[in-house]
Write a structure and sequence with these properties.
- By secondary structure, the chain is α/β, with parallel strands linked by helices.
- It has 6 helices and 11 strands.
- A 7-stranded mixed sheet has the order 5-2-1-6-7-11-10, sandwiched between helices. Strands 3-4 form a two-stranded antiparallel sheet. A two-stranded parallel ribbon has the order 8-9.
- It is globular and about 35 Å long.
- This is Protease I.
- Belongs to the peptidase C56 family.
- One of its GO terms (molecular function) is peptidase activity.
Amino acid sequence: MQLQNKKIIQLVSDDFEDLELWYPVLRLREEGATVHIVGEKKGEQYIGKYGVPIVSDLSFQEIEPNDYDAILVPGGWSPDKLRRYEEVLHMVKTMDDQQKPVGQICHAGWVLISAKILEGKKVTSTPGIKDDMTNAGAIWLDEAVVVDGHLISSRRPPDLPDYMREFIKVLSK
């Protein structure tokens, strides 16, 4: 239970990639972390791309990022929705400013692009948004997981074990 005193924000909106949201949540909870599911509305049910639901614990407006140790952005199509909320961008920017772990997988890079935190950072993502990432100033690598300080990025569901191993390492420091 190496993460017993850690609190993590797991962002959510409809059309998240089911495994890219649920796998990190379950792994972090196994390690003793408190993971809050945070969406536009508290108590709202959100549906993943493949039909797996999740209910939000809190709304974006209820979150004070300073009270948390890390943030996770899921992949799927939800990042295109999440990046439209100023509260989401504020959470990501705050975590970045404080050098707290920011995890992103697959299309989640869109949120980091909109938060304008990728200039000069080494990252990966689904190859489908490689151009978006590099146009935002990132150094894109085609690897299962890339760690650049407090930023932990991954490509897609088969990379989840590598992604979470590295995210937990960074969060444990």
